[in-house]
Design brief:
The complex is a heterodimer of chains A (about 250) and B (about 220).
Chain A: E1 3-9, E2 18-24, H1 33-46, E3 69-70, E4 73-74, E5 96-100, E6 109-111, E7 114-115, H2 118-127, H3 147-157, H4 164-168, H5 175-186, H6 195-208, H7 219-223, H8 231-244
Parallel strand pairs in A: 1-5
Antiparallel strand pairs in A: 1-2, 3-4, 3-5, 6-7
Chain B: H1 7-33, H2 39-50, H3 54-84, H4 99-102, H5 104-123, H6 146-154, H7 157-184, H8 193-219
Classes of the chains: A alpha+beta (about 250), B mainly alpha (about 220).
Chain lengths: ~250, ~220
């Protein structure tokens, strides 16, 4: 396959950046998108040019590092797929492909396609954890979790924190990411004691980190490579409403 | 109060005020549709409202507060969301969101501009004094002749056009708003989501068409 790539090139956070055009003339349909870029980079290096910088790690769709907007869609056109698991057979010979980084104020571009996603970590640090006493290993059966609850928590825990929801959101909101963490912990016995504090702190962090507000476009759900449902945002909203009701136990 | 600065707190505030405004739009529509039952019906309705006396003013103050909260926070959220998305993509693509969801701020501002005109037209009656109920002869039961004021107003193409355009904006605003509060109150459960969105859009079309029917049928001289 022969492809024409329009890739965002940006030297650093302060650089203005622009799209540059490259030819990929020897693309195998069995290559992954990242392998295709690896070959383009090999050619760039051979001709003495800077290779295209992009994030990647596990290349098996579970680490959440790869982060490219391909033809206007985070992780490309294939549903429930990260860039590393997107294969070139999804494209046709002669296709023009636009490759851009996640774009959001909360994700400053470090170089080319690499963005700084520390802001998601800050949201996690605000409350995406459970506090527990240290000591011996707890008995596995001491805390019983029903199957429906466990399944619900697992569905939310599928989030790999890649930030595609932010990249897809017209408001650059991190609400789907935050809601997956809030919902997962809110239904489990380990997470319940801190549920009120957690939802308040994590939603505060969304704005202080420069993300936008959720206005129910649901683009996040459509872009999510793990199929995280916006029902978790409804759950987060419920948890927030619950957190405003004072209880006698606090 | 953190509630007023929190991203979800303000979302809930938009939903609560939005829902109350939907309730207002519903009651207002039912009252308006009495125009199709003839002069006696809508003139009696207008008289009944006026006879509420001080209650009318309490209600009006409540409405001002609702609109003020909904508009202020709507504009504030719009600018925050703009600031969060400084650079556009070379290829902008959306998959599931709707035209109405993307244009909430604009349809909202059109509705606000219309609201001011509407109050000047029918409530304060200064835009077309010659055909305002205050200057028209009273009806047979010596009530203000609201019916004739509506008919004479909407027979003017310019006035009808303003109302029809504004009601299209209202339709679009409701098409996102009606289903949106269900999600914001945390009532959607995943599988019900698509149905809620569809029902919201259908209801918005019902509201929009019912409101548009009034100027349109009068303009077409079907109601006279």
């Amino acid at each position: 396959m022969k492809l024409t790539l329009h890739v965002w090139r940006q030297q650093g956070p302060e650089d203005s950046g622009k799209l540059e055009t490259y030819k990929a003339d020897n693309v195998s349909p069995d290559q992954s998108f990242l392998e295709m870029l690896d070959e383009v980079n090999d050619d760039l290096i051979k001709t003495g040019k800077d290779p295209i910088a992009f994030d990647h790690d596990c290349r098996e769709g579970i680490c959440g590092m790869c982060s490219q907007v391909i033809n206007g869609r985070p992780h490309g056109q294939q549903e429930l797929t990260t860039v590393c698991q997107l294969h070139m057979r999804q494209f046709k010979d002669g296709d023009e492909i636009f490759i851009e980084p996640w774009r959001a104020r909360a994700f400053p571009i470090l170089r080319d396609l690499i963005v700084d996603r520390t802001s998601l970590d800050v949201v996690m640090q605000a409350g995406g954890y459970t506090s527990c006493h240290t000591g011996g290993v707890a008995d596995g059966n001491a805390l019983l979790v029903g199957k429906p609850v466990a399944d619900y928590a697992m569905d939310a825990a599928e989030c790999i924190g890649c930030g595609a929801c932010v990249a897809a959101c017209p408001n650059s909101s991190a609400m789907l990411f935050t809601s997956a963490k809030v919902a997962q912990l809110a239904v489990l016995p380990q997470g319940k004691p801190e549920a009120k504090r957690r939802v308040k702190a994590m939603t505060e962090a969304i704005l202080s980190e420069g993300f936008g507000n959720c206005t129910n476009h649901y683009e996040c759900e459509a872009a999510c490579p793990k199929g995280i449902s916006v029902k978790f945002i409804a759950k987060l909203n419920r948890e927030y409403i619950k957190s405003m009701i004072p209880s006698s136990t606090e | 109060m953190n509630f007023l600065t929190n991203t979800v707190g303000r979302k809930i505030l938009m939903a609560v005020t939005g829902l109350l405004l939907i309730a207002f739009v519903t009651v207002h529509l039912i009252g308006n549709l009495s125009v199709f039952a003839g002069p006696d019906s809508i003139n009696a309705y207008a008289k009944a409202l006026q006879d509420l006396g001080p209650l009318v003013w309490i209600f009006r103050l409540g409405m001002v507060a609702l609109f003020a909260i909904h508009i202020t926070f709507g504009i504030q959220l719009y600018f925050e969301n703009k600031a969060a998305t400084p650079d556009p993509y070379a290829i902008e693509k959306t998959l599931v969101t709707s035209f109405s969801a993307k244009t909430m701020i604009f349809t909202g501002l059109i509705i606000l501009a219309f609201l001011l005109y509407h109050l000047l037209h029918f409530t304060i009656q200064v835009t077309n004094p010659s055909i305002s109920a205050a200057n028209l002869p009273l009806d047979a039961a010596s009530r203000l002749d609201v019916y004739t004021m509506m008919v004479l107003s909407f027979q003017k193409v310019f006035i009808s056009l303003i109302y029809i355009i504004a009601m299209i904006a209202l339709l679009l605003h409701l098409a996102h708003g009606i289903s949106s509060w269900v999600q914001t109150f945390g009532l959607s459960t995943g599988p019900s989501q698509d149905k809620v969105i569809s029902i919201g859009k259908v209801l918005a079309i019902v509201y929009g068409l019912a409101y548009i029917a009034i100027p349109l049928l009068i303009l077409a001289r079907i109601v006279k």
